[in-house]
Amino acid sequence: MEINPEGFDLREALRCLGWNGGPIPEELLTSVRQTAARLQKLCHPRAVFRLFDTLPPDTAAPVTDNAVLFAATLGLEFERFARTESLRDPAAALIADACGSALIEAVCDTVEDHARLLVGKPFSRRVSPGYGAWSLEAQPALLHLLDAERAIGITLTEGCMMLPQKSVTGLVHFSDTPFPDVPNSCAGCAARTDCKYRKAGMLCGKTDPA
Questions:
Q1: Which domains, and CATH codes, for the chain?
Q2: Is the pLDDT of residue 164 over 70?
């Protein structure tokens, strides 16, 4: 299905560029806003998701039941845009990549909202292969279960990296009872060990660095 993301997080794009909460040069802010606006017009994000009472073992997922698996992509439109920007100006290419990352996150948020309406039960936080203990080697099983190549055009390299590059897979766990209200923090994040923000001495926008 085609997804119209409900919002674009400008701060997420800036964080991908290394912003740590300090003053933002007006020229950079203008460039990010303009690039984001161009991408939102050019890209036609698509996604697919499925509900599972029991997950097949080959997903090696962090949960075994009551899950929504999903895949989402910005598609080849982003690939062409990013390639053009890289030929034009390296700085513009970095901004395009950051805005693409922020936009695919907004797409995933919208997919999650659609699934939540369908399921009608409390959801856990979203997790993806490659973060925490969930290996990237789970990608082929996830994409097969979702028929993602046929449905939305996602393929895999031999190293389990997805193409188009701005693509995401993951799951959310659902339950009859609410999940614990764990504060947004590094302490409760599955990506804590490999987080690129922590390695750079920054936060991903969450409020508590504990």
A1: 10-199 (3.40.109.40)
A2: yes
What is the pTM for the complete model shown?
0.86
The CA distances from residue 83 to 9, 30, 93, 204, in Å, are 23, 21, 8, 26
Q: What is the 3-state secondary structure (H, E, C) of 155-208?
A: EECCCCCEECCCEEEEEEEECCCCCCCCCCECCCCCCCCCCHHHHCCCCCCCCE
Q: 162: which strand partners? A: 156
Higher-scoring residue by pLDDT: 191, 51: 51
Q: Which residue has the tokens 């339950």?
A: 175
**Phi, psi at 57, each rounded to 5°:** -60, -30
Residue 147 is classified by DSSP as T
Residue 29: CB partners within 8 Å, gap ≥ 6? 14
